[in-house]
């Protein structure tokens, strides 16, 4: 299921991911959960839609990984935390690599917004103010929480404070993933967390 590759920056990144450690089947379950949460955070902070994800997949020549809304839905439904009765339950390594590249590309496109949000988070934290009282962070947290509660099964992590910590941790991580080697950082992070 390898995409047809040409000599582009995304191909170089794809090849780079192939040189890194390959996750085993047990790790893939945790990886698909983590990738879905990162996409959820992108949806919450930047209003990323499935159409935009598909446009990026096409731009990066990853149509063999994500070629339509149904394929994207199935990939996201493979997250075991998803509150669903269907979808595909298995994510393969090539799909995980493709999602990593798509996520990092979206994060790079939204880099200015991510920097502004993380800078604001640092400022309010230093001033001992609640982050949700700023419009940007409050809107992000509300959207993230609503999307999480709407799409995920009830879990211990869905406690409000814990969910807030997850949302802000992913927001900070997204800033790192927006950089030149973001794909490597994300791949290594998901392997480590799995």
Would you give an account of this structure?
The protein has 194 residues and is mainly alpha-helical. It has one domain (9-193). It is built from nine helices and no strands. Helix 2 crosses helix 7 (135-151), helix 5 (93-109) crosses helix 9 (182-193) and helix 7 packs across helix 8. The longest helix has 22 residues, at 25-46. The radius of gyration is 16 Å and the shape is globular. The two termini are 23 Å apart. The model is unreliable at 1-7 (pLDDT under 50).
Write a short abstract of this structure.
With 194 residues, the chain is mainly α. It has 9 helices and no strands. It has one domain (9-193).
Topology:
Blueprint: H1 9-19, H2 25-46, H3 50-59, H4 69-77, H5 93-109, H6 111-126, H7 135-151, H8 160-177, H9 182-193
Helix pairs in contact: 2-5, 2-7, 2-8, 5-9, 6-8, 7-8
Question: How many structural domains?
Answer: 1
Number of helices: 9
The main sheet comes to: none
- Strand percentage: under 5%
Overall 3D shape: globular
Taking all residues together, what is the mean pLDDT? Answer: 84
- Structural class label: mainly alpha
**Rg over alpha carbons:** 16 Å
Q: From N to C, what is the helix and strand string?
A: HHHHHHHHH
Tally the beta strands. 0
Unreliable residue runs: 1-7
**Helix share, percent:** 55-70%
Termini separation: 23 Å
Q: Can you give keywords for this protein?
A:
single chain, mainly alpha, 9 helices, disordered N terminus
């Amino acid at each position: 299921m390898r995409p047809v590759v040409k000599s582009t920056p995304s191909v170089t990144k794809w090849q780079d991911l192939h040189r890194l450690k390959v996750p085993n089947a047990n790790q893939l379950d945790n990886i698909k959960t983590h990738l879905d949460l990162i996409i959820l955070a992108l949806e919450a902070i930047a209003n990323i839609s499935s159409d935009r994800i598909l446009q990026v997949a096409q731009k990066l020549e990853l149509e063999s990984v994500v070629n339509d809304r149904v394929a994207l839905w199935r990939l996201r439904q493979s997250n075991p935390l998803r509150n669903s009765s269907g979808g595909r339950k298995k994510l393969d390594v090539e799909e995980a690599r493709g999602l990593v590249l798509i996520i990092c590309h979206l994060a790079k496109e939204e880099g200015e917004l991510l920097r502004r949000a993380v800078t604001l988070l640092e400022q309010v934290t230093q001033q001992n103010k609640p982050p949700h009282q700023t419009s940007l962070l409050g809107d992000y947290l509300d959207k993230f929480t609503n999307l999480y509660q709407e799409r995920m099964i009830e879990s211990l992590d869905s406690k409000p404070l814990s969910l807030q910590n997850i949302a802000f941790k992913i927001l900070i991580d997204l800033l790192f993933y927006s950089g030149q080697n973001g794909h490597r950082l994300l791949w290594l992070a998901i392997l480590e967390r799995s």
